Each structure stands twice: as C-alpha cells, then as structure tokens.
Amino acid sequence: MKAVVANRLIDGEVVFWKSGQWVERFGDAELFDSEGLVEQAVSVGKSQPTVVVDVYPIDLVQSEGCWAPLSYRERIRALGPTNEPTHGKQAEGGDAVEALRHAAGAARSTGRVDLIRRK
Amino acid sequence: MYQYDLIDKEFLADRSAEFRGQVARRLAGELTEDQFKPLRLMNGLYLQLHAYMLRVAIPYGSLNPTQARRLAQIARDYDKGYGHFTTRQNIQFNWIKLKDAPEILDKLAEVDLHAIQTSGNCIRNTTSDPYAGATAEEVDDPRVWCEVIRQWSTLHPEFSFLPRKFKIAITASAKDRTAAKVHDIGLLLRQGRDGQQGFEVIVGGGQGRTPYVGPTIKEFLPTDRLLSYLEAVLRVYNRHGRRDNIYKARIKILVAALGAEEFARQVEEEWSKIDAASADLPAAELTRIRAAFATTPFEALPARSEAFETAKSKDPAFARFVRNNVRPHKQPGYAIVEISLKAQEQTPGDASADQLDVVADLAERYGFSDLRVTHAQNLVLPHIKLDDLPTVFAALQAANLATPNIDLVSDIIACPGLDYCALANARAIPIAQDIARQFADLDRAEQVGELKIKISGCINACGHHHVAHIGVLGVDKKGEEFYQLSLGGSGAEDASIGKILGPALPADKVASAVDQLVEAYLNARVDGERFLDTYRRVGLEPFKEAVYAQAD
After folding, report:
1. Is the dihedral of CA B13, B18, B24, B26 positive or negative?
2. What is the value of ipTM here, to two decimals?
3. In Å, how far is A15's CA from the nearest CA of chain B?
4. Chain B within 8 Å of A81 (Cβ-Cβ)?
5. Do A12 and B419 touch (CB under 8 A)?
6. Residues of B in Cβ contact (< 8 Å) with A112
7. I want to staple B201 with a disulfide (CB 3.0 to 4.6 A). Which of A69, B104, B218, B369 is the partner?
8. Where are the domains of chain B?
9. 3-state secondary structure of A8
10. Taking the CB of residue B28, how many other CB atoms lie within 10 A of it?
C-alpha cells in the first residue's frame, strides 16, 4: 500500500494526496494499491508547482489495524517532531496519531533518497 | 557593538524588498522551484521536514537586547514560541511559512538583523570567541576583525559562487572557544615579538564526511594585510576547488590534495599579484570599526565583592553555578556568565521567547546590553558585576536558565536531527536528552568533570561529533536509527578528530554506553585528568572493552 506526500508551497505544511485534493492529516490520505494510480497522483502533483513541492510516494505498513508510513522519517513527517509532542500534526491526538506513534517497520525514505540524488 | 549606518540599513531594507518580490513571483508561478530555491537559500530559508526553517545570522554571536527581544517576538508571532541556537552561533526558527518570510525579514532588518549568507556557497558568518572583549586571555578584541570580514564578505561579487560554503573563525585567546582548527580558515591572533599583532592562518580544516584538523599555512600574517591574504586564499580555492563533486568541493579537499606547502605557495604567489593598497583595509576604516568595540564603560571596582562571597557561602546552588558557569573577567569586580540552554529535558540550544526576553532584560540591566551566543549552543552575559551576580542568578533560576553544567557531561551539543532536518538519518535530540537524564545527578557530573559530548544526525556533522570527547553519529541501517560512537576528538586548541569506538548501537543503548565509557574513565584517570586526557593516555581499547565486552 502507498500514499503520496508533498509540502505545501505557501507554508511548507506536509500534505497528502486525497482524490484530487491535498489534505493535512495522514489519516485522511488516499491509500493506493496500484502503482499506476500512484504514478498518476504523483504526476498530477508535480503539475501543480504553485500548490506543492517535493511530491513523492511513500510505502505503508499496517499498525494497530491502521496503515502507517513504513519509514521512520515519513512517520515523523506525518506526526511532527518527537521532542515536542504538542507541535505539528500530532498535537490533535486521537487514535490515528497513537497508531502512527506505535507503528514499527523500517525502510529508507524515498524522500531522503531523492534529496541526496538531487544534490 | 558595531552600529549599522545608513548604508547598512538601506541595504537590508532593499534586500528584504527584493525577497518580497521573489516570493510573490514564486507564488504566482512566474518562478519555478528550481529558480526560486537558490534565492530563498540566499535568504536563509530552507524547506525542512515539517515547514520552512529560517536561519538568522548572529554576526560573530553578538546580540543586543533589542535584537534578542525581536527574535523573541518573531518566535511568538511566526513560530511556536521558541528559537534554536546552532553550532554556528546563529538562530533557527523551525516553523516558518513562506508567505510570512518577507515580513520576518523586514522585522529583522528594523533591528539590524538578517539571514544573508546563512546558506549557499558563499562566505558564512564568522565564528568568534563568545568571551571577546571580556576575557583577559585575549591579545585584542577579535570582533573587530570579524566585523571587518563581515563587511568585506557581504555580497562579495567574486566570492558569492564558491565551489562550496566557506566558514572562517577568529580567536584572539590561546584557549580556543571557536573550533578554529576545523573551519575552512581559522585565524589565531597572536602578539609578535616586536609587539606587532598578526594571525596564524590555518586553512583546510573541517568536519562533514571527511574531517580534517587544518594545517597552518602562514605562521604570522600582519593584521593590516588580512583582507588581501584572505582574497588570495579564496582566489586559489575559487580557481582550483572541485565543482564536479559536492562531497569534494570544500577547501579542505583541495588543501589535502595539493599538500599544505604547495597550497601555501600558490596562495603566496597569488598574494604577490594583488594590489595591497586597494585590497587591504584602510587604517582609517579600521579605526572607525575598532571604535565601536572599545566603549564598554566598566566601573573601577575592587576585585573582591562581599555580596558575591556571602551568597556563595550561603547558597550551595549559587556556589555550584559559580563553579561551573562563571568565568574570570579582565576587569576587576566583573565576571563572564554562561547561560546553559541544556536543562534536563530541554532540547539542546532551544530558548523560549520568554527566556530570550529574560536574558535581554538581564543584559540591559546588568550587562552593558551585551549578549553572546556560543558555538556550544549556550548564551553568555559577558560583563556582569560580581555584586549583581546573586540577583542575575536568581532571575536565571526563575526562568529555568541556571543549569550549572557548562562543559560538563550534560552540556551536550546536538543538531536538530531527524526530528526537523530533511538531511538527517537519525534523531539527535532524544539521544541528548537520554544522556543528560543518565547524568542528572550534578554531584556526579562535577565529579566526572569536563566532558564534551556532541551528536550529529548525519555525516554532515552540524553537531560537531568528530571533535567531541565522546561523539555520537546517527546512521541509517536499512531505515533504522543507529548510533556510532567515537572518542578523543577536540575542537579546542588541542584539536583532534575522534576515532570510531566500534559497531553502531541502537538508540536505547547509547546513554548506557556513555555511562560505561564514563565509568571506564573514572577507573583509569590519574591526577585530575579530563576524560580526553585519559583517553589520550590509555587509548581506545579499555573503552571499547567497557562498551562491547558484555555484548559478546
């Protein structure tokens, strides 16, 4: 399963693709099980340069019955910094946030790999 | 401190207006992200994991209360009520919106602050001694030369597109609080035999993935020839520094490839071609700049303060603070006060807006309106009367700013790491907090003595792990956070690069490993040795055994 992530241009907020829109909560993100649809969403995202930047797909893993980003970096992006539990998306709390916090699994983040490649 | 004149002020206002236009064009789609990114970076604006990050320059780590209060206001109005002081004596705001950035730059410019040259392949903020103008150790005030370099390097057309970023440090004391030997250029101001002052010039030090302690390429450069010589160094680098590979583009790689002697020869050759009269600073301009730093109106006071001595004997907490955070001042009756930003559970280097306001008030009321930032992510009130120290201490205590741990095991340098930084492999802040918790007992921390722990979340080494007594480097093992320990580094006058202890450890084993290293040191130390001294005497093996033996 995959989702598509980006930063909103105007404020840098981490956003997720949901059927033609960008949403702020990972819990609201569209989940893809088809590579073709992921590529399509990424390509639409990349055609919106005044809305978002750094659009890329992320791999997901199951946690407590929910889906969560597989890479630790992407879980931090979906939650906020671990040193300030009231800052960022995690501030609103709730089951979805807890499920993300408890998620395990590890993989290199495609975002970071892209960043290094671009350098 | 140096006062901006009309030219400086107009320049900052223009620059801010220019960026406002660039942001508007980007939002309107007239600039692509690839076109815009270098423009925003030239104004210190990065895109990090959760938001934009704005890095504001604090020239040579020197702030006045008006500026500190403005930073506090920006933290409140545009961030989440705090700022993060960095290992380059700058401050970063982690939650900035692109749309707000031009307004923030306007507000900074109003108090002579900016974010110019805090990013990009140019000459960055010059690092300097946070005790400048206050310590009896110095042969001259290094800030004078930092300000000279600031003015010379600001938007220098020839040096705005170097192969890579370029960092200069200046110290005028034998005790180096700037990490000069691991900068691109380290300038050590010395008194010559004939009474003239000159710089020992070190070139090609650095950290990152290829750490070097820089070699000396000139033993004694007369101070009045500084700018032409820097120009010659930069020119050789600009011409021959590698542009094909970002990891080999720093001047340290060039110096190592040519050898220090050949590099020095090329610099001398280039230097001989430069017209000194047009390149070096006119004496009148030096006098003008120097005047801005020579005006601290100290009172003539006795060296001993009764109020201070009484407080010290009555209040053990104050006595502990004095032992660890207070340093001798050149002027009798005064002291240098270090403010630790490393309280238990605090993020190293973070200061809240309220704390910034408290420190600004103290600087204004008791400290000649002078405030400094250290590369160890702490603050300094450089000129406090001994008579006022108990009052200042009480105010710091009330603001959770009186942690008495400067240079002790819990005074840990940590980069923002994977909690904020787009480049990081692993988190640094929680590791620092774990270690600090392990050594929360201040008696034990004092018993351990000077121990510099520095943590970086990736090989770029913003957390200076290579030059730590105990360095911690976050690595990514198939997506999991692991930490590689190294021992025996130093960023001070006895600079050295640390050696890797052994295989990387998982996050939950780092603090206990540091504890094992400290126990091994306490068992082996003789005659008041620091951790670093013991390591240098006994080598890596006993420490390796302490951490890895049980694991076998």
Report:
1. negative
2. 0.94
3. 10
4. yes
5. no
6. 422-423, 425
7. B218
8. 6-110, 134-291, 306-398, 413-548
9. strand
10. 9
- Domain extent, residue A96, equals 2-118
Q: What tokens were used for B321?
A: 């603070």
Using CB atoms, which residue from B47, B425, B433 is nearest to A7? B47
Q: Is A24 on the interface with B (CB under 8 A)?
A: no
What residues of chain A lie within 8 A of the CB of B95, using their CB?
Answer: 87
Q: Which of A50, A76, A105 sits opposite B27 (nearest CB)?
A: A50
Question: What fold does the segment set B6-110 form as a domain?
Answer: Sulfite Reductase Hemoprotein; domain 2 (3.90.480)
**Which CATH superfamily is B134-291 part of?**
Sulfite Reductase Hemoprotein, domain 1 (3.30.413.10)
Q: Which of B486, B490, B479 is nearest to B503 (CA)?
A: B486
Q: Confidence band (pLDDT; 50, 70, 90) for A77?
A: very high
Helix H or strand E encompassing A62: strand A52-63
Cα of B294 to nearest chain A Cα, Å: 42
Q: What is the dihedral of CA A89, A92, A95, A101, to 10 degrees?
A: 40
Tokens encoding B85:
């002081």
- pLDDT tens across B1-23, in order? 888 999 999 999 999 999 999 99
Bridge partner residues of B425 (DSSP): none
Chain B residue numbers with beta carbons less than 8 Å from the beta carbon of A53 are: 33, 47
Can you point out the beta strands (E) in B51-104?
Answer: 52-56, 62-63, 82-85, 91-96
Residue A115 has pLDDT above 70, yes or no: no
Structural domains counted in chain A: 1
**Segment B171-193 mean pLDDT:** 97
CATH of B306-398, one of 3.40.50.720, 3.40.50.1100, 2.60.40.10, 3.90.480.20: 3.90.480.20
Taking the model in full, what pTM does it have? 0.96
C-alpha distance from residue B260 to each of B200, B216, B247, B264 (Å) = 14, 8, 20, 6
Annotate B185-226 with DSSP letters as a single string. EEEEEEE-TTS-EEEEEEES-B-TTS-BPPPEEEEEEEGGGH
**Contact call for A76 and B423, based on CB within 8 A:** no
The answer to whether A10 contacts B99, with C-beta atoms less than 8 Å apart, is yes
| H-assigned helices in B195-302 | 226-240, 251-258, 260-273, 276-279, 283-291
Q: Which residue of A has its CA nearest to B247?
A: A119
CATH entry, B413-548, from 3.20.20.70, 3.30.230.10, 3.30.110.70, 3.30.413.10: 3.30.413.10
List of chain A residues whose C-beta atoms are within 8 Å of the C-beta of residue B422: 111-112, 115
Q: Can you tell me the distance from the alpha carbon of B112 to that of B100, in angstroms, rounded to the nearest whole number?
A: 19
What are the structure tokens assigned to B57, written together?
């320059």
Distance from CA of B162 to the nearest CA of A (A): 16
Residue A116 above 80 pLDDT?
no
Distance CA B505, CA B120 (A): 34
Contact A82 B26 (CB under 8 A): no
Instruction: Give the integer Cα–Cα distance in Å for B507 and B318.
Output: 35
Q: Which two tokens mark B528?
A: 């008041």
User: Tokens standing for B318?
Assistant: 């104050």
Q: In B, which residues are within 8 Å of A50 by CB distance?
A: 26-29
Both tokens of B5, joined, read 């004149």
Q: Are B427 and A82 inside 8 Å of each other by CB? A: yes
Q: How far is CA B18 from the centre of its chain?
A: 29
B116 falls in which pLDDT band (50, 70, 90)? very high
Residues counted in chain A: 119
Q: Please measure the distance between the N-terminal and C-terminal CA atoms of chain A and give it in whole angstroms.
A: 28
Report d(CA B203, CA B183) in Å as an integer.
7
Query: So what's the pLDDT on residue B205?
Result: 98
Take residue B510 and report the two structure tokens written for it. 């780092």
